[in-house]
Specification:
single chain; about 550 residues; alpha+beta; Cytochrome p450; four-stranded mixed sheet; three-stranded antiparallel sheet; 21 helices; 9 strands; about 5% strand; disordered N terminus; binds protoporphyrin IX containing FE; binds 2-acetamido-2-deoxy-beta-D-glucopyranose
């Protein structure tokens, strides 16, 4: 590896960025002369029609949500961010066309620049999430969608066993043990515990309990991996926005935007996930395992890949790395987002003790309720799913504190398209376009007083039209269309069970919520990665 040049990042940026970007823009511009309506779209900044520099600098400073939010409020649902980039904040002529219409993640029909290429693992091995074109993508998604479907998740016997073991032998004992601490009994950083629990459940379903993590019982390892995982977050801008430039600079000048230790952190994460994959493979080779050790998703994918290879007449080959890249993505996509959402559930419920009591009343009506004396039996997942207040609490939190509130970029198809609420803009092919859950969810015509956390809004009697707008058209926590979150049902399942286990037994109050605001990014954890709460045992009546 070449050493980093001793030049501060911002100085080099100042010198190189304007020159290279203007050059790239000039070259691109000269090969795409088709007449279009981009010039009629209100620019978010006077420089936006002329250079991508403005939006790049906003992204570099992590001010995209705040900036787009203000710009849409001022200029309407379609705005221009750069010569060849727009942002949409509407359903008709917006997310319905772009995401419902299967616009691809990769530029030029899935062949050019791809913002999601950054999520490839093991040095450029793609996975479902990172795939640029919708043909390759749908082949993979077809292999997995059944195992993550609502009906399979709600009735899978292995998942129910896995969640039972995790809640009764790890989660609830962990909560009980916080009271025997000498200092501040009952006080804990709930963000950490919730992340550990969702990581255990997701790796449990994917790899089986024997091969998955046990982070609740091992806070040291958890802290280690969380640190590896989150500390890389500060270095996403260059490889994500300017991958070619970043690569060339390192290759030819030896200058690294991303420090070497980030590569080392990735290498360690790769090894960790590879270990879980190998362990699941070994369980399957043994040919015999207990229900909770079933590597449900791993088994499904490896069998589907075998079948595909046989059909094509390929020899099996080494799929170890491809599978590991897929599951590394699913594990990180699956635990962090649910952990973030649950942290805001706890934060909001701690501010609303009345609602906490009402929720507890609802939860204790389950048969059996999720409390220590019921172990190891869990109530029917369908009964948990059907609890109205629990559902409203989760949905309201997904709305106001979307874990992925940031823009989800796509490219317009090569033949161009029409966008805008009246479809009045003709947009040529290869234009970057995105919408953001964080902005869609703040529409006050759909969600009254959108800044307020009010689960009751999901329980009120409203017109069918309003209901449809709230529940499906504008609700975008999991995205929409062909590339919508594949894990949404698993996410909701685990979140509802974890809330049930926590609030059937305990009340929560805030001790310290400094830095609870979400970071301004694609994924948005609390800025401090911490929420200190005081647990209190519920007195049984
Ligand atoms: C509250 C929890 C979750 C939230 C808010 C969430 C949100 C999202 C969103 C918004 C997308 C679309 C992103 C884009 O196109 O830029 C997505 C995709 C995805 N999510 Fe989730 N997710 C959650 C939980 C999970 C879980 C538990 C899994 C576990 C398997 C998972 C796996 C994935 C995968 C694999 C994709 C890519 C799908 C594709 O490209 O077809 N997510 N998620
Ligand atoms: C995005 O910005 C708006 C306006 O400043 C703010 O109300 C909202 O909370 C922000 N969302 C996130 C997820 O930070
Ligand atoms: C795939 O992408 C192309 C162009 O980007 C689009 O026209 C097509 O409808 C998409 N297919 C599906 C199934 O979404
Ligand atoms: C919660 O758990 C404790 C044991 O840790 C138990 O004594 C208590 O009765 C439980 N609360 C309820 C409401 O079941």
């Amino acid at each position: 590896m070449l050493p980093s040049l001793p030049i501060p990042n911002n100085l080099l940026t100042l010198l190189l960025l304007p020159i290279s970007l203007s050059l790239v823009y000039f070259l691109k511009r000269s090969i795409s002369p088709s007449p279009n309506d981009l010039h009629r779209i209100p620019p978010a900044h006077p420089l936006a029609p002329y250079t991508p520099l403005w939006i790049s600098s906003i992204r570099w400073q992590s001010r995209e949500n705040a900036t787009l939010s203000a710009a849409h409020a001022r200029l309407g649902p379609v705005i221009r961010l750069a010569p060849r980039e727009i942002s949409v904040n509407c359903v008709i002529g917006g997310i319905r066309e772009v995401y419902g219409g299967g616009f691809e993640k990769g530029e030029r029909g899935g062949k050019g620049y791809n913002w999601y290429g950054f999520f490839e693992n093991f040095g450029g091995v793609p996975n479902m999430f990172s795939t640029p074109d919708n043909k390759t993508h749908s082949t993979r998604k077809r292999m997995l969608s059944n195992i993550y479907s609502k009906s399979v998740v709600l009735s899978h016997p292995a998942l129910r066993e896995q969640v039972s073991t995790i809640l009764y032998t790890r989660f609830l004992p962990y909560l009980a043990a916080t009271f025997s601490k000498a200092e501040k009994p009952g006080v804990l950083n709930i963000y950490e515990l919730l992340s550990a629990t969702t990581l255990d459940i997701v790796t449990g379903y994917v790899f089986g309990l024997a091969s998955g993590t046990d982070m609740i019982s091992d806070p040291k390892t958890l802290a280690h991996y969380l640190h590896l995982y989150t500390s890389r977050g500060a270095y996403t801008f260059w490889p994500q926005e300017y991958p070619g430039f970043t690569y060339a600079l390192e290759r030819w000048l030896g200058y690294r935007f991303v420090p070497k230790w980030v590569d080392d952190a990735n290498a360690e994460i790769y090894e960790w996930v590879m270990g879980m994959c190998d362990s699941a493979a070994q369980v399957l080779r043994k040919g015999e395992w207990s229900l909770e050790d079933t590597p449900v998703v791993y088994q499904q994918l490896s069998q589907a890949l075998d079948k595909e290879a046989k059909k094509k007449g390929d020899d099996a080959g080494d799929r170890r790395v491809g599978i590991a890249s897929e599951f590394l993505d699913q594990v990180t996509a699956g635990f962090d987002t649910s952990g973030i959402t649950l942290t805001y559930v706890v934060h909001e419920l701690s501010k609303h003790p009345d609602l906490q009591s009402k929720l507890r009343e609802e939860l204790l009506g389950l048969t059996p309720p999720v409390r220590p004396s019921s172990a190891p039996s869990l109530p029917d997942p369908r009964a948990v799913d059907a609890l109205p207040l629990l559902h409203a609490v989760i949905w309201e939190t997904l709305r106001l504190h979307a874990a992925i509130p940031g823009p989800q970029p796509r490219f317009t198809p090569p033949s161009g398209c029409r966008l805008g609420p009246e479809k009045s803009y003709y947009i040529p092919g290869g234009v970057r376009v995105s919408a953001s859950a964080g902005l869609l969810h703040m529409n006050d015509e759909v969600y009254d007083n959108p800044g307020e956390w009010r689960p009751e809004r999901w329980l009120e009697d409203v017109s069918e039209e309003k209901k449809r707008n709230m529940e499906s058209r504008w609700f975008w926590a999991f995205g929409s269309g062909g590339r919508m979150c594949i894990g949404s049902h698993l996410a909701v399942y685990q979140m509802k069970f974890i809330v049930a286990a926590l609030y059937s037994n305990y009340t929560t109050a805030i001790i310290d919520d400094t830095g609870i605001e979400q970071v301004d990014g694609y994924t948005a954890p609390p800025s401090n990665e911490e929420l200190l709460i005081q647990l209190q045992r519920v007195k049984t009546g």
